[in-house]
């Protein structure tokens, strides 16, 4: 091996400065071409997968812009030949869609704010306070995640019915003001903070509530963002509970309103798809804006250190 190295050194040493520069340029150009090729392949693969994933949404937008006469033909019409916005206009005329959207925004917004407040307070107690049965109580809270919502929906309905809360904003909001998922998410994030942070704040005369508001919450923006995006989308897409507890158009939400666009007339499919396209815009927009916070918040408490 040493003999081969001794033979190679003089070969390189005999090359002129111009030849070395040309060799370096050729190597750099080859490396750059490899990087560009890998980047182009990555971008191409991402575009292909993105189109495949978004294909149902793109086709829904195409149907929403089609007249009914173009959809129900023997031809495969993927794109509208005569695009029209009449389906969107008729959707607002058929049902009070703006009222449904407002109700969903109020419901989803209040549930999101409520869960952030209650879950952060509960997670603080499970993370920093010491009391008897804390571990058992936390296990009970986590165990509720295994109970499907359908198993408790009848008992919840009988409870709110007895309280006279049917067909109100309270019945849409109050049962979902906290969640075991949110408590777990905040607790895992709080566990990354040293207990000395809380002890130092107590020595300085900081109350528990002031510690949460002034110290914990500013340090947990990623967890709050993840919780807000996750909770808002779930509340916005809620269907069974609003259908069960509301009976008037003044209190119905968008998910129920979309089902009202459907009828025995097959021509209403384009109308219903137009409504679907409109109501998924807020949830998609919130997901796009908060996707980084969602990913960062979901993984922030996974590794402690």
Question: In the CATH scheme, what's the topology name of the domain at 92-300?
Answer: MetI-like fold
- Level-2 CATH architecture of the domain at 92-300: Orthogonal Bundle
- Per CATH, the class of the domain at 92-300 reads Mainly Alpha
Helices and strands: which structural class? mainly alpha
Distance between the termini: 47 Å
Low-confidence stretches: 1-11
Note the run of SSEs as H and E: HHHHHHHHHHHHHHH
Oligomeric state as shown: single chain
CATH level-4 homologous superfamily of the domain at 92-300: MetI-like
Overall average pLDDT = 83
The 3D shape can be described as flat
Domain ABC transmembrane type-1: 101-290
Protein name: L-arabinose transport system permease protein AraQ
Transmembrane segments: 43-66, 105-129, 136-157, 169-190, 211-233, 269-290
InterPro entries: MetI-like, MetI-like_sf
Task: Spell out the blueprint of helices and strands.
Layout: H1 2-13, H2 17-64, H3 68-71, H4 86-94, H5 97-128, H6 134-143, H7 149-162, H8 169-173, H9 180-190, H10 195-203, H11 208-219, H12 221-236, H13 240-245, H14 254-261, H15 269-300
Helix pairs in contact: 2-15, 4-15, 5-9, 5-12, 5-14, 12-15, 14-15
Give a structural overview.
The structure is a single chain. This protein is mainly alpha-helical and 305 residues long. The protein has a domain of 209 residues: Orthogonal Bundle (MetI-like fold), CATH 1.10.3720.10. The protein is built from 15 helices and no strands. Helix 2 crosses helix 15 and helix 5 packs antiparallel against helix 14. The longest helix is centred in the N-terminal third of the chain and has 48 residues. The radius of gyration is 29 Å and the shape is flat. The two termini are 47 Å apart. 24% of the residues are buried.
């Amino acid at each position: 091996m040493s003999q081969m190295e001794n033979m190679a050194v003089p070969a390189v040493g005999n090359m002129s400065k111009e030849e070395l520069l040309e060799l370096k340029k050729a190597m750099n150009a080859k490396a750059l071409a490899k990087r560009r090729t890998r980047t182009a392949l990555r971008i191409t693969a991402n575009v292909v997968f993105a189109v495949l994933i978004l294909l149902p949404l793109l086709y829904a937008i195409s149907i929403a812009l089609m007249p009914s006469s173009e959809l129900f033909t023997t031809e495969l019409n993927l794109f509208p030949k005569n695009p029209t916005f009449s389906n969107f206009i008729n959707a607002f005329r058929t049902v009070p869609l703006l009222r449904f959207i407002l109700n969903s925004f109020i419901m989803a917004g209040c549930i999101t704010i409520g869960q952030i407040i209650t879950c952060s307070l509960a997670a603080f107690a499970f993370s920093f306070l010491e009391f008897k049965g804390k571990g058992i109580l936390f296990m009970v809270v986590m165990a509720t995640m295994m109970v499907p919502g359908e198993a408790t929906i009848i008992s919840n309905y009988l409870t709110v019915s007895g309280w006279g809360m049917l067909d109100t904003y309270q019945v849409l909001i109050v049962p979902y003001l906290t969640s075991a998922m949110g408590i777990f998410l905040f607790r895992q994030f709080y566990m990354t903070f040293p207990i000395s942070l809380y002890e130092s704040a107590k020595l300085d005369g900081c109350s528990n509530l002031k510690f949460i508001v002034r110290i914990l919450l500013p340090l947990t923006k990623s967890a709050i963002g993840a919780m807000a995006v996750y909770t808002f989308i779930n509340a916005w897409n809620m269907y069974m509970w609003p259908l069960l507890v509301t009976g008037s158009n003044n209190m119905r939400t968008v998910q129920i309103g979309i089902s009202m666009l459907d009828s025995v007339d097959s021509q209403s499919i384009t109308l219903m798809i137009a409504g679907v396209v409109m109501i998924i815009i807020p949830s998609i927009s919130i997901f796009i804006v908060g996707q980084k916070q969602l990913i960062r918040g979901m993984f922030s408490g996974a590794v402690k250190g």
